[in-house]
Amino acid sequence: MNKTYDIVIAGAGVIGASCAYQLSKRGNLRIALIDDKRPGNATRASAGGLWAIGESVGLGCGVIFFRMLSSQAKRQAHGAAVAVDSSTPHILPQCFFELALQSNALYPQLHQELIERHGMDFKFERTGLKYVIQDDEDQLYAEHIVRHIPHLQAQVRWLDRKALRETEPAVTDQANGALEFLCDHQVSPYRLGDAYMEAARQNGVDLYLNTPVTGVLHQGGRVKGVRTAQAGDFHCNTLINAAGAWAAELSEWATGLSIPVKPVKGQIVLTERLPKLLNGCITTSDCYMAQKDNGEILIGSTTEEKGYDVTTTFPEISSLVQGATRCVPALADVNLKRTWAGLRPGSPDELPILGPVDDMPGYFNACGHFRTGILTSAITGVMLDKVIHDEALPLDITPFLARRFHKVATPA
Amino acid sequence: MSMRPVIVGGGSAGMAAAIELANEGVGSVLIDEASRPGGVVFRGPLRGGVDVGYLGARYSKALGKLHADFATCARHIDLRLNSRVVGADNQSLMMLDEQEQLQPVGYEQLVLAAGCHERNVPFPGWTLPGVMLLGGLQLQIKSNVVKPLGRTLIAGTGPLLPLVACQLHAAGAKVTGVFEACAFSRIARETLALMNKPQLFLDGLSMLGYLKLHGIPMHYGWGVVAARGEGELSEVSVAPYDQAWQADLKRVQRESVQTLAVGYGFIPRTQLSQQLGLAHGYSADGYLRAECNAWQQSNVPHIHLAGDMAGIRGGEAAMLTGRIAAVSILHQRGVLNAEQAIERRERYLGQLAGIGRFRSGVERYTARGPAQVELPQADTVICRCEQVTREAIDLALQQGVQDMAGLKMRTRVSMGDCQGRMCVGYCSDRLRAATGRADVGWLRPRFPVDPVPFSAFKHLGTEA
User: Fold this and answer.
1) Range A328-335 average pLDDT
2) What pLDDT score was predicted for residue B322?
3) Nearest by CB to B461, which of A39, A318, A333?
4) Omega prior to B12 cis, within 30 of 0
5) Which domain holds residue B241?
6) Is A338 on the interface with B (CB under 8 A)?
7) From B417, which residue of chain A is nearest by alpha-carbon distance?
């Protein structure tokens, strides 16, 4: 029953599958991709935005996160919640911009490659992302964003009221305008996950689905495999932790050190199929909206710390519905088809956790991707493939190492 | 103990539960999506002045009695018609009311009696206009009082086939033949079990006599293979089925018809019981259903299941399980003491036992043959909402997809408006055959159970 591989990847979400795909292209590695379907899997639950700038400046999924942080901070300070205020920036560090933008740039080629070589289409669409400005607060926030990204001016465009009406006629005429991020696009997230996984399988990767990992094997001070109930022990030289919202436990087993990955719940609303209503992806300070390739509009999303709970709750769903209808009034006459909740693998600094861990050879992290796992899956696969093989990396991995959480504070 | 018990579904089970409660002076809220209570069995004609004599004297009498009993309890029952329960959590239901507005309905105790839906069996041409499900066709002659045009062929399995054939004929429709998938010898083998309900057994025999008398042929061990037509149904192919329901394509016969009614059984509705997170299990027939105890209680004791939702047993059993659920609630509310409740429950359970043995006999002879899933061709649509073909499902299985969630992501089956009600039976059968596992997952229905307009949220609170 025992199996031997060069590389075992725990977790076949978009991150694990991307790593499997990149590694499988070498052609000389025995790779096992092990997955256990658990409620809340973020790849299946995600919206599929490739919002490289949008997410880096705290829009998209992040705008709601920011609002939550901001109101929490204000509540603590003043005992009452207040709306977003532009004086508290929520712009991610430069290293994240680089990761996000490099990853984003990989998609057109990856899309081509997965269709041509593997017959899998993850529906990459060039959409842009428009931050619709509905009040003065939004305007201040948009200006604040633009001031912080002078190096990306070529990718940013202001739309006045008239220009917004022309490109997005369905957006309310109450909107003052929009800030558009030209390089932010979208994919179908579950098709992306399936495309990586099927391509990896075609390249010879063995899939073990519905197979929970129950422990990590060690030998001679290094990780040597994983234990499963269904498929026995897997021996390997390299273990990749791509366990999404469940990564902390696996890290604990493998290294004895915990990593601060926590499930962050997001609820999402989906409309019935519609004729083209939105020309690009939209974000407001209430929600984001993305009309997918099949005509459904996906509206997200909440940011909640509720452990592994994936129930949908009526007040939160109602907020998303009302936020979306405020920006796109025609939605009032549309049917809501489905709602669901996913679990983002949240990390405290919103940066993913990548690469090796001190003093535990044979173990690599590819986790903590929070709200940008779809976007950064492409570069994560490339980085892991290279870091495992000690090859030059496309960007500095230092800010993403787990070490950042385990530094012992030295007295000044 | 201020809130009233809430009953979801005003069919046989839900009405019986409401009546049982009302007889003890306990008021309830009864929610049903139709404009009249009664469910698919006892809704009766939706317009007045109709003589439903063609449905049989015994049926007309039962229909009359149920509605009369219900009417005498009316002051205890808060009846919400044209209202759909589209979501649920452990404190309240979310109801889309007559004005298409969402409103929460709190409950102290709950009876889920939402019934079942028909099992769709895909075959080439099954989506043509003119091909219907048997229960749907019966509902048309019962409640909309509309009969099918032209010649009708009935194919499927189980006692509903001859019943609907008789009712159609009595209503003046032309029935060309009834094709029961199971061989006659297998039904005969169940005679003892079927004799547990002597009246039903006799009714069955008299139906067969009626069909014979009127020259409607009853074919045993035959099933549907394909339907054809330009834009609408004009021809149905049938063939002998072997034990495994493998169709013998060398002996196909073609029948010229305008309507094909297909009835290969039912699947409990589990959308709400799953949303409530209740414990579920699989039946011998392979469908998912919520589990319940002798009190009709789910694993959450104040949430009850009644009728076909807890497993397919038909209208008479539905009334008894509805009554038992009500007895449990009466006990939970302190209206009956333990002794009284058990005494009454045992009486209903006694009546249920005979039905149980009868149903087991029916279930054995109507057990689906595993080969029927081979009827669709590569380009036959399996998921109607998303237009997913058999070919796409075959490819996904070849690529190693192993469970419902994986199949859904790979092919988009069940991502449409019906949330998989139509294709789940076929997909589950294929996955179980491909993986050799009994549990391949089931669809996880989400809020809302049926699509709801965004405008329905207008008066609902938000998180802010």
Assistant:
1) 96
2) 98
3) A318
4) no
5) 120-264+366-370
6) yes
7) A337
